[in-house]
Amino acid sequence: MNKILVVDDDKNLLEVIKYNLVNEGYSVILAETGTQAVEIARQEKPELIILDVMLPGIDGFEVCRILRKEMSVPILILSAKIDEIDKVVGLELGADDYIAKPFSVRELMARVRATLRRGQLTEQKTSVKMQDETKPRAILKGHDIELDTVRHNVFLKGAPLILTPKEFELLSFLMRYKGQVFSREQLMEKVWGYTFDGSKRTVDVHVRWLRQKIEDNPEKPKILMTIIGFGYKFEN
């Protein structure tokens, strides 16, 4: 049973989200402050965090920043702030998704299912691999990067590279189709599994994060290339 941490200072909204998540078969933990969220996440190691921005004390952006340094758990931000800049801030701090309030419960549940489904597929592949180490691993290589799609490991020039789940999925997809150009809309559909307002900026932010980790000079990339007017590609 997947464990989900929901963080919001609105007790009524917490109960609504909890009710729907429990009906979907998830185990739910609640927190009403940023400090509680950090402590519970460290103790419980949830598979997903649904995080409000406007919290007493430590706000959601700071919680996201703290937890992203310590763990790779997917983080879905909720916020009444709908400005594009707020979405970008959340994504740049390492959030995997951003939903503006008010939102429909159906949309939230769809995002939760999509995020957890991708994580489960990765775990299943890893489990199969562990049962039969004699089978060849699915290794993607390019530009001193070695990515293991089964064990979910990435190495850059032989050194381990730490990526968030979404960064890993985006890099894996682009490496699998080296040299092929994908629009932001295509990447949103193939990597995220759905589309939502601000999706183009979401892709841009994650590409920028990846460039900071894999490029010698992120300002003059040679690996993740921008094709002006269309999208991105992993250079051959």
Could you walk me through the main structural features you see in this protein, from its secondary elements to its overall organization?
The protein has helices at residues 11-23, 34-44, 60-70, 84-92, 105-131, 165-176, 184-192, 199-214; strands spanning 3-7, 27-31, 48-52, 75-79, 97-100, 139-142, 145-148, 153-156, 159-160, 182-183, 224-227, 231-234. With 236 residues, it is of the alpha/beta class. It folds into two domains: 3-118, Rossmann fold, CATH 3.40.50.2300; 136-234, Winged helix-like DNA-binding domain superfamily/Winged helix DNA-binding domain (Arc Repressor Mutant, subunit A, Orthogonal Bundle), CATH 1.10.10.10. The strands form three sheets. It has a five-stranded parallel sheet, with helices on both faces. A four-stranded antiparallel sheet has the order 6-7-8-9, covered by helices on one side. It has a three-stranded antiparallel sheet with strand order 10-12-11. α3 links the parallel β3 and β4. α7 (184-192) packs across α8. The radius of gyration is 18 Å and the shape is elongated. The model is unreliable at 121-136 (pLDDT under 50).
At the first level of CATH, the class of the largest domain is Alpha Beta
Question: What is the overall shape?
Answer: elongated
By oligomeric state, this entry counts as single chain
How is the CATH topology of the largest domain named?
Rossmann fold
CATH H-level homologous superfamily name of the largest domain? Response regulator
Weakly predicted, low-confidence segments: 121-136
Distance between the termini: 41 Å
Number of domains: 2
- Biggest sheet character: 5 strands, parallel
Report the structural category: alpha/beta
In CATH, the architecture of the largest domain is 3-Layer(aba) Sandwich
Number of strands: 12
SSE string: EHEHEHEHEHEEEEHEHHEE
Strand arrangement within the widest β-sheet reads 2-1-3-4-5
Kindly state the mean pLDDT as a whole number?
82
* Rg, Å, rounded: 18 Å
Name the beta content range.
15-25%
What is the number of helices?
Answer: 8
